[in-house]
DNA sequence: CGAGGTACCTGACAGC
DNA sequence: TGCTGTCAGGTACCTC
């Protein structure tokens, strides 16, 4: 579910909330979410008493650096989000002790993993569809793992300039620009919401083969990537449905977005109407009038 | 190589 | 009311 801005928002918040704390125990009612090590009890033994020394992100992957040169990888995938709070188990549900943070989270009945920290707070993974995954790695091995190694460049650092963007695209020989933007091995972190918004912002048709794009179109896509992703971070993510910040509160990008989930509305820029079609098995939202 | 389908899961919602 | 089909911020893996 979450894309780069949501994952970045989560990471920034976690840094404030859990850095330096020690993991005392872990609970789950969905052992399959933990992929590595395969046995959940081994996972529990391995993770206990490790201190959270860093919180970082690569593409949509979250890394918690743990003492003893380990890294905990969390991928939230669709519908997943991490929450920090203090809850207790009650009739098969996690209830917030303060009545606070989780009241803002409509999906708190989907907490399936809870890490108990040494100051009494908890880090929880809420994942309605259970696509999320958690893996414990030796730090060096994680860097070399296929899922991380295949990722393209991060789009936001200053050194990702227009030339880097064009070089990144060259990994592909052809393909519709919408699908290419979402290809994590080309550029890391863009998903369906932001790909739609970026192309609207750039006034480029999602269906156009990227090899047919003019220099001018490429330039406006490049600019739109920076602008839209930064806006997403500034607004602390998009909560179209179940994404929540670790506090349980919603992000704000869904009100700023111009096309995603707005089929049938007037294009805010021209006389057109927002349409929805499909490519690559995903919904494409666009304005056929001003995105040629 | 690219495109398209499937799988992994649980819901919300529209239409009959 | 209940059924059926479709849709949902992702990724891996398979076939053509």
- Residue share in helix: 25-40%
What is the approximate shape?
globular
Q: Please, what is the average pLDDT? A: 94
The profile of the biggest β sheet is: 5 strands, mixed
Question: How large, in whole angstroms, is the Cα Rg?
Answer: 20 Å
Distance between the termini: 28 Å
- How many E strands? 13
Total helical elements: 9
The strand order across the widest sheet is 2-11-5-4-3
Q: Tell me the structural class.
A: alpha+beta
Indicate the proportion of strand residues. 15-25%
Which stretches are low in confidence, meaning pLDDT under 50 for 5 or more residues running? none
Protein described:
The protein has 292 residues and is α+β, with helices and mostly antiparallel strands. The chain is built from nine helices and 13 strands. It has helices at 4-18, 40-47, 139-144, 146-149, 162-169, 177-182, 192-202, 215-234, 253-256; strands at residues 23-28, 34-36, 52-58, 61-66, 70-75, 80-85, 87-90, 93-96, 111-117, 122-127, 133-138, 275-279, 282-286. Helix 1 runs parallel beside helix 8 and helix 7 (192-202) crosses helix 8. The longest helix is centred in the C-terminal third of the chain and has 20 residues, at 215-234. The two termini are 28 Å apart. It binds a DNA duplex (16 and 16 nucleotides) through helix 7.
């Amino acid at each position: 579910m979450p894309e780069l801005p949501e994952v970045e928002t989560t990471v920034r918040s976690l840094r404030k909330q859990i850095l330096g704390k020690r993991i005392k125990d872990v609970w789950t009612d969905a052992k399959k979410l933990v992929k590595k090590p395969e046995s959940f009890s081994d996972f529990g033994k391995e993770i206990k008493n490790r201190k959270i020394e860093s919180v970082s992100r690569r593409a949509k992957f979250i890394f918690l650096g743990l003492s003893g040169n380990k890294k905990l990888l969390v991928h939230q995938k669709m519908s997943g989000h991490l929450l920090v709070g203090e809850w207790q188990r009650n009739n098969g549900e996690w209830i917030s002790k303060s009545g606070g943070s989780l009241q803002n989270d409509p999906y708190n009945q989907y907490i399936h993993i809870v890490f108990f920290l040494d100051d009494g707070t908890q880090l929880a993974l809420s994942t309605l569809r259970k696509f999320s995954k958690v893996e414990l790695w030796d730090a060096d091995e994680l860097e070399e793992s296929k899922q991380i190694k295949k990722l393209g460049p991060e789009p936001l650092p200053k050194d990702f300039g227009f030339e880097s963007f064009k070089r990144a695209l060259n990994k592909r020989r052809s393909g519709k620009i919408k699908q290419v933007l979402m290809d994590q091995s080309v550029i890391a972190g863009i998903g369906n919401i932001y790909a739609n918004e970026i192309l609207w912002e750039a006034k480029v048709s999602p269906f156009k083969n990227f090899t047919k794009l003019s220099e001018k179109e490429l330039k406006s896509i490049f600019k739109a990537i920076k602008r839209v992703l930064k806006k997403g971070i500034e607004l602390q993510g998009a909560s179209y449905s179940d994404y929540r910040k670790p506090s349980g509160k919603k992000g704000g990008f869904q009100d700023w977005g111009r096309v995603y989930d707005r089929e049938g509305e007037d294009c805010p820029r021209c006389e057109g109407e927002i349409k929805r079609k499909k490519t690559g098995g995903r919904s494409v939202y666009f304005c056929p009038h001003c995105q040629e």
